[in-house]
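Retro notes
What went well: the complex prediction finally ran end to end.
Inputs used:
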Amino acid sequence: MNRPRFRWHILVFLAPAVLVYTAVMIFPLFNTLRLALYTEIDQSRVFVGLQNFQTLFFDPIWSEQFWNALGNNFWFFLIHMLVQNPIGIALAALLSHPRLRFAALYRSAIFIPTILSFVIVGFAWKLILSPIWGIAPSMLDAVGLKSLFAPWLGKEEYALTTLALISVWQFVGIPMMLIYAALLTIPEEILEAGEIDGITGTAAFWKIKLPLILPSIGIISILTFVGNFNAFDLIYASQGALAGPDFSTDILGTFMYRTFFGFQLQLGDPHMGSAIAGAMFAIILVGVCIYLFGIQTRMRRYQL
Amino acid sequence: MNKARHNPLNMVAMHGALILYTLIALFPVFVILINSFKSRRAIFREPLALPNADSFSMIGYETVMKQGDFFLYFQNSMIVTVASLSFILLFGAMAAYALSEYQFKGNLIMGLYLALGIMIPIRIGTVAILEMMVATGLVNSLWALILVYTAQGLPLAVFILSEFMRQVSDDLKNAGRIDGLSEYTIFFRLVLPLVRPAMATVAVFNMIPIWNDLWFPLILAPAEETKTLTLGSQVFIGQFVTDWNAVLSALSMAILPVLVLYVIFSRQLIRGITSGAVK
């Protein structure tokens, strides 16, 4: 028997995708991690090992910014988990009700903010919350809560939370859609069996539906995590590269942008930028691993 | 029918909650759109009123048309999005076919390798991507963006498309082989038309993030002649912060194309998401 002929067509089918993916995604990814180990001295690249990371984590000037951005990023993520995902699940639960009319209309309308760009969302909310224009204060006034108004985006203590809530407003459509899809796959027989045992309405949601959609909740959690830890656009569009006021809305994405691209008088430093990218990579990797090995494998999947 | 599950009072409460949230979702878009057609005084005096004969004004749109090259930006965004989507679909479908159709050494490894990029954002590699684009002279060209978005979209495209290609019947392909069709003809003539719905899903998934991206246009192609609509409106609005008419009109002009695309493709998009493509 001869060895089978080399099947060239497999190579032809695979080559374009693998080449582009390797050259533009995988290679730069590792090259960035490699660049993090170098620095520039007298216009030449010098290998310095882990020194950039040491600077990033322990040098007072750098570390203060880094830990600030990291802490802000965790707060940003926490708000999404506590507000975006529960609202998304609640909307999906309402929409999946079998007798609900206009469900498609609600679904399409609620998804609209998700398709808008961060630039539009950032500026639109900036205008609405602006004390100059006065839409937000006059609306609060209408319900007698005018005293609660503050220039939220301009105050250090509120700005980050406000931006996180704007981002929640924008992206609530994604968990809503994914959970909605999961709820539709639950067979009617299971719900009817529950009904016979007297489990209806809200009880049916908590006792039957919620356990069945846990895997989807896991997926939206990890999608939220990855999305939040490489977020940049919304903060940049509404607060600029300096992530004001006084860096209170700085997250890892804006910190990395400022560092490697430079801003105003500070020159860009690609090597420190790479070090921050390396830290982001590590954080995302840890998150994905916790999900894959810690959560997904332990989650009970019900055969439907 | 069981009464407990279909209580009319519950129904009213459900509609109430959904209408409330729909209003929250649409209110900012509505405010921007109506105010873009009003004169400066009307914008501030009655921000929530619809434009009427008295307050109607197109002054904002006139400023935008004069100052910013929005048609060029729009054209750039169009070119980048359409080209990236074509490459993602063509290359992604070819790779997905190779992985799902043929048994060969390294098939599994190759599949895992391509799947890596689903979870790891391409932005992490930005520093090296910029260096590479500078070295190859592609910086400030639309090609830089097209390449990056193609690479970014491929992993999920290969993953989704290979799931669908496994469902294409073997008999059909074998019949083609017996008739003497080449593997390429089988792929392009028999398999591709059958996975068209999956291709549409992949296209709609990728379209919105590519169209809306700010990061890569800002870093790889910030030149005037290569600005995308998203970057262009960001820069424009930044310059005209105090000219409210111009800012509101620019925002509306950025919203409209996406809204039109959404109206055209929303069924496809929603069907794509709800068919469990992201499992």
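What we learned: Chain A has a mean pLDDT of 87.
What to try next: split runs per interface for comparison.
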